Each structure stands twice: as C-alpha cells, then as structure tokens.
# Entry
Amino acid sequence: MTIQQITAVEANSILRTDCNSILVDVRTYEEFNLVGTVNPQDFNNRMILLPWQFYNDHQFNPDFYTTLRNKLNNFFNKEDFTTKLFFICRSGARSNQAGSFISSYGYTNCYNVCDGFEGHIDQNHHRSKINGWKAQNLPWKQT
# Structure
C-alpha cells in the first residue's frame, strides 16, 4: 500500500497541534542510542521507539504490529484507526515500509517522514546536512 509522504517540518507541525497523532521511530536500538532521537516534549511525548528491523541481522521485527498496537493503546486507551501515525527512520525508506505494512491492518492515516531523521546523503556523503529532522533544527536529543 502507498502511504502519504510528508517532510520532517510538516510532521513536526502536525504533531505539535494534533493530539490524535503520534511519531513512530522505526530505526534500530543502536541508532536511537548512537545517533539520537526526536525530542517529543513539544508534542506531549507522543512517540514510540520501535525497530522495524534489527541491526545484527537486518531481519524484520516479527512483533512489530502487535507491539505497535499495544503501545498505541497505552497512549490512546483504545484502538483508533483515525490516529495519525507518522513513521520516521534515518532517511525515509524503512519508515515507508513500516507505514505501508501498518496501513494494511486498517490504519488509514499513515504518513512517511520522507526525509527522515538524518536526511539524505549530500555531495560529501554526509547526512544531517541537507534535509531531515536534524538538518531542519527540529527538537532532538542525544541519549
């Protein structure tokens, strides 16, 4: 399934104003710890850190749907298919896969943060320079 594409700036704006929205970071635990994460303080900490794949073997997380559903229920106390789910990864590829996967379960408001947390690679093969959450100076933190 195809999901809606949105930039980090647009996602941040919606997350800050729409209480029925949540950010789902699908990067690996290693990326959360080494690269940093979005600081969700400005949108009432509505963020879930849930790897789509595992770093050591790049295998799909078989518990992704069940874990996400349970974590969403913890935030909203009900299964609400109208909740806006913003999926983010490093550069938009894994998050697009995860969002498409979740939309197949009936979630109709799935968005891919297409420029990701670190953005695309620039001419010097560096990230976080031309686009993405960090390059746009949106709130983030190093853990």
Remarks:
- Residues 4-141 form a domain with the Oxidized Rhodanese; domain 1 fold (CATH 3.40.250.10).
